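Progress against Task 2.4 (sequence-to-structure conversion) is shown through the following example record, which the project officer requested during the mid-term review.
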Amino acid sequence: MKEFDLKRAGDLAQIVEDNDLLHRIGTYNERSQHRTLKFVLEEDKSFHEVQIGPYVADICRDGQIYEIQTAGFKNLCSKLKFFSKEYAVTVVYPAAAVKTIVWVDPVSGGLSYGNRVKRNAAKYKLLAELIHIHEFLDKEQVKILIFETEVLDYRILDGRGPNKKIKATKSDIVPIDVISVTEINEARDIR
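Structure tokens generated for the chain above:
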């Protein structure tokens, strides 16, 4: 399996964001995790956000499509049905296996870091989503990549309670390391 360079991808994603006046790529307002994973999978931005029929693929190059999906696999069905007729499709599922919450003071902009927490079951949240795309699990042209990552989870201190952390606004999730990549080629691989 290919080696994934998250540091380089993050740098490329940041360069693109810095050069984009609206701080987003193309017409889609993407968060850091999605944007960085696109650069992990394909460094050349010209293969990102490719219109194919009525849909836009996150990445399309040489007959291979990558769709990055953190949740909402139900919405992925029609895309998979359309794409898998003529393309090999890989659904990329990022799972935060290690998370550090970074609290952002909305007044000063100051940062405070919470504990670094390992989440051993993070990748298993995918199981609840697979019910929506079960018909594609044994199709040769569709596979799934689970990216277990370490992330910084930025939240604004604007919630309730004495420390303003209850129901605080989630701002962004930034991947800082790829821990492992698991490939699912057929339903048997899920076991």
